[in-house]
User: Fold this.
Amino acid sequence: MALLKISALRKDFGGLRAVSDLSFELRKGEILGLIGPNGAGKTTVFNLITGFIPPTEGQVLLEGQSLIGLRPYAIVKKGIARTFQIVKPFRNLSVLENVTLATFLHEPSRSKAETKAMVTLRRVALAEKHAVNASDLTLGEQKRLEIARALATDPKILFLDEPMGGLNPTEVESACALVQRIRQDGITVILVEHHMKAIMAVSDRVIVLNYGVKIADGAPQDVVRNRDVISAYLGEQGP
Amino acid sequence: MKRLLVVAGIAFLLVAPLLTSNAFFQHLMIMVLFWTLLGASWNLLGGFAGQVSFGHATFLGIGAYTTMLFYLSLQLSPWLGMLAGGVFGALFALPIGLICFRLRGPYFSLATLAVAEIARLVALNWEQLTAGPVGLLITTLPQVSIAGHAINWESKIPFCYLAAGLTLFAMGLTYAVSRSRLGAYLTAVREDIDSAEAIGIDTVRTRVIALALSAFVVGLAGSFYALYFRYIDPDAVFAISLSVEMVFIAVVGGLATTAGPIVGAIVLVTISEIFRDRFAAGHLIFYGLFMMLVIRYLPEGIWGRLRLLLRLTRG
Assistant:
């Protein structure tokens, strides 16, 4: 059985159909890449599944249970954590406090939560920065902090919204390694990313969206050769 | 150091009412405590959770009317009446919170302002219950004795102690919240609501709890107001100026600090008395000027800045 099953998901913003009858499944333990040109509706799909925006129609099932109508915090409790494309750290709090707040979800004691938070920070290589204010981190570090905070909620599925956007090549490489390690820890990952090289390297499967419609779903090397995908990115070939 | 300050403060509260027999200074002390109480309760929601309410007079009025009505109609003892004032404040906070917390930032603030105006208009027009603009009056308070001593309600001294007790309760509550998981969640809500939801915090419930706690304490303050002045009317206890003054106390003292409101209340009550004395009709102009200077040069508040300086000198 699929871990997460999305069927006929649709979202209308007034007259604009941002997501159109989208169906796909997420299998346990895989890394799924979600790509598409700007404005294709990738982030909207994230927001629909994680409860930040209610869908107009459609169904989202996590292990057979519907998530429709649940608020974001309740979906996190069920085991889906997310990061934001534009990082949203708790700016005036320390790195450790940022992650500790997320650890509180399953660990009410502060001292134990802080110990666990430090372990999570080590997973993303931010442990030595634990006392720094979140606003003083570099963008790359803030992206890792977002991931640490999401991991601290102990998710089954992790939604990463452009974790590599704006990073330099070395940082992209270590971000790819991080995503692989997260999967090895038993967490299923779905990521939106524009960095094609990274998504090709890290994904088991890729779904391509264009104008809210799924135009391809398959192994990365097949998807890049798909005619619809090429024309979505580059435009139609002339006669 | 911290503990010493707390002990010194409590000792001062115990002896201060006896130091002067001047009724004006006793009244001034009561007002400082009353405003500390209001500032501290506003701070629970406005400071820690960053939810700026411009309508906290709603709960002050509800507390005042609850105590007054229970006393006038059922002869309920003022102590129970006070508790009822707090409880009713908190009860009304629940639906208000569930509605207003659908809104964020300035929209929330505007909604609370509207709620306070609605409360004032209801109190003004529901004459069977509230006597409308005529207001409610208690002529005598009942005989109450503590440890065999009858309390002389005509003196201001019992009110000094009552206000001191309530203020200590509010500051204790603030301190407890700031150390708890609720306090941490409120901070998360203040920093970023989306991120707070994304780590599993029910941000509506968290904010409603903070509002209810805050409204409970403001309700107590309203009850105190009713007993101390023995006369209330809608324009007095539901006034926007009350709501705004609470914000000033918390901001001038220091947002999201335990001791901030007491500093804010001492400074603002003193300054407003001095300005009233010096500048007569123009005193509000100078009061406004003072507020502008504080907000411009001490955005973290007077106590907030002192605390920062203390930390810097230590480490």
In short: Chain A touches chain B through 30 residues (CB under 8 Å). The two ends of chain A are 45 Å apart (CA to CA).
